[in-house]
Design brief:
Length: 141
Protein backbone atom coordinates (compact mmCIF):
# COMPACT_ATOMS: atom_id res chain seq x y z
CA UNK A 1 0.00 0.00 0.00
CA UNK A 2 1.55 3.28 -1.14
CA UNK A 3 -0.72 5.91 0.39
CA UNK A 4 0.84 9.20 1.39
CA UNK A 5 0.03 10.48 4.88
CA UNK A 6 -1.69 13.86 5.00
CA UNK A 7 -0.02 14.75 8.32
CA UNK A 8 3.72 14.74 8.88
CA UNK A 9 3.50 14.30 12.66
CA UNK A 10 1.40 12.01 14.80
CA UNK A 11 0.73 12.94 18.43
CA UNK A 12 -0.15 10.01 20.68
CA UNK A 13 -1.89 11.06 23.87
CA UNK A 14 -1.54 9.10 27.14
CA UNK A 15 -4.99 7.61 26.44
CA UNK A 16 -3.77 6.26 23.08
CA UNK A 17 -5.81 8.73 21.01
CA UNK A 18 -3.93 10.16 18.03
CA UNK A 19 -3.99 13.50 16.28
CA UNK A 20 -2.14 14.54 13.14
CA UNK A 21 -0.21 17.76 12.48
CA UNK A 22 1.91 19.16 9.68
CA UNK A 23 4.11 21.51 11.70
CA UNK A 24 6.00 20.96 14.93
CA UNK A 25 4.89 24.30 16.39
CA UNK A 26 1.25 23.21 16.10
CA UNK A 27 2.18 19.98 17.87
CA UNK A 28 3.87 21.86 20.72
CA UNK A 29 0.90 24.20 21.12
CA UNK A 30 -1.54 21.27 21.21
CA UNK A 31 0.51 19.41 23.83
CA UNK A 32 0.86 22.55 25.96
CA UNK A 33 -2.91 23.09 25.83
CA UNK A 34 -3.51 19.44 26.74
CA UNK A 35 -1.38 19.75 29.87
CA UNK A 36 -2.88 23.12 30.81
CA UNK A 37 -6.36 21.60 30.59
CA UNK A 38 -5.23 18.59 32.65
CA UNK A 39 -3.84 21.02 35.24
CA UNK A 40 -7.17 22.88 35.33
CA UNK A 41 -9.06 19.60 35.72
CA UNK A 42 -7.00 18.57 38.73
CA UNK A 43 -6.73 22.03 40.24
CA UNK A 44 -10.36 23.08 39.91
CA UNK A 45 -12.51 19.99 39.45
CA UNK A 46 -10.65 17.59 41.71
CA UNK A 47 -10.32 20.20 44.45
CA UNK A 48 -6.53 20.28 44.63
CA UNK A 49 -5.49 22.08 47.78
CA UNK A 50 -1.99 22.51 49.10
CA UNK A 51 -1.94 24.34 52.42
CA UNK A 52 1.75 25.11 51.93
CA UNK A 53 1.15 26.90 48.62
CA UNK A 54 1.93 30.60 48.88
CA UNK A 55 2.31 31.42 45.20
CA UNK A 56 4.58 30.64 42.32
CA UNK A 57 4.65 27.43 40.34
CA UNK A 58 4.83 24.99 43.24
CA UNK A 59 1.27 23.75 42.75
CA UNK A 60 2.00 23.09 39.05
CA UNK A 61 5.01 20.99 40.00
CA UNK A 62 2.96 19.03 42.54
CA UNK A 63 0.01 18.44 40.20
CA UNK A 64 2.19 17.31 37.30
CA UNK A 65 4.18 15.03 39.60
CA UNK A 66 0.89 13.50 40.74
CA UNK A 67 -0.33 13.11 37.14
CA UNK A 68 2.94 11.48 36.12
CA UNK A 69 2.67 8.98 38.95
CA UNK A 70 -1.00 8.20 38.25
CA UNK A 71 -1.03 8.18 34.45
CA UNK A 72 2.56 7.11 33.90
CA UNK A 73 2.50 8.31 30.31
CA UNK A 74 3.16 11.44 28.34
CA UNK A 75 2.21 12.87 24.99
CA UNK A 76 4.54 11.45 22.36
CA UNK A 77 5.29 12.66 18.83
CA UNK A 78 6.19 10.42 15.91
CA UNK A 79 6.69 10.88 12.20
CA UNK A 80 3.54 9.49 10.58
CA UNK A 81 5.52 8.02 7.66
CA UNK A 82 7.80 6.12 10.09
CA UNK A 83 4.79 4.68 11.89
CA UNK A 84 3.24 3.55 8.60
CA UNK A 85 6.54 2.00 7.53
CA UNK A 86 6.76 0.08 10.80
CA UNK A 87 3.14 -1.09 10.46
CA UNK A 88 3.96 -2.42 6.99
CA UNK A 89 6.88 -4.39 8.46
CA UNK A 90 5.24 -5.64 11.66
CA UNK A 91 1.61 -6.46 10.88
CA UNK A 92 0.73 -9.71 9.18
CA UNK A 93 -2.89 -9.32 8.08
CA UNK A 94 -3.29 -7.20 4.94
CA UNK A 95 -6.88 -6.13 5.70
CA UNK A 96 -5.94 -4.83 9.14
CA UNK A 97 -2.83 -3.17 7.73
CA UNK A 98 -4.82 -1.36 5.02
CA UNK A 99 -7.47 -0.21 7.50
CA UNK A 100 -4.91 1.22 9.93
CA UNK A 101 -2.81 2.89 7.24
CA UNK A 102 -5.84 4.47 5.58
CA UNK A 103 -6.89 5.93 8.96
CA UNK A 104 -3.39 7.32 9.50
CA UNK A 105 -3.38 8.92 6.04
CA UNK A 106 -6.58 10.92 6.63
CA UNK A 107 -6.47 14.67 7.25
CA UNK A 108 -8.40 14.30 10.52
CA UNK A 109 -7.10 11.25 12.34
CA UNK A 110 -9.62 9.50 14.58
CA UNK A 111 -7.61 6.62 15.90
CA UNK A 112 -6.56 4.93 19.14
CA UNK A 113 -3.39 2.84 19.20
CA UNK A 114 -4.74 0.59 21.94
CA UNK A 115 -7.73 -0.44 19.80
CA UNK A 116 -5.24 -2.23 17.52
CA UNK A 117 -2.53 -3.04 20.12
CA UNK A 118 -0.06 -0.82 18.28
CA UNK A 119 1.78 0.39 21.37
CA UNK A 120 4.33 -2.38 20.77
CA UNK A 121 4.85 -1.16 17.19
CA UNK A 122 5.40 2.40 18.40
CA UNK A 123 8.11 1.15 20.75
CA UNK A 124 10.26 0.44 17.67
CA UNK A 125 10.02 4.01 16.35
CA UNK A 126 12.17 6.97 17.36
CA UNK A 127 10.15 9.73 19.04
CA UNK A 128 10.45 13.28 17.74
CA UNK A 129 12.14 15.45 20.37
CA UNK A 130 10.12 18.57 21.03
CA UNK A 131 11.43 19.99 24.28
CA UNK A 132 13.20 23.31 23.85
CA UNK A 133 16.08 24.31 26.07
CA UNK A 134 15.10 27.53 27.83
CA UNK A 135 18.09 28.60 29.86
CA UNK A 136 19.69 26.84 32.76
CA UNK A 137 17.89 24.47 35.07
CA UNK A 138 17.29 25.71 38.58
CA UNK A 139 17.50 22.91 41.09
CA UNK A 140 14.83 22.60 43.73
CA UNK A 141 15.92 22.90 47.33
Amino acid sequence: MDKEPYNEYLVVMPTGNCKGFNDIEGVKAYINMYYELRLDDVFHKDGYNDATEIGGDEYRYNVFTQLGAEEGAKCEIYKTASFIEEINKELVFEDEKEEIISKLCEAKINFNIYDYSLDTVLANIQEVEYMDDYGTNVSRM
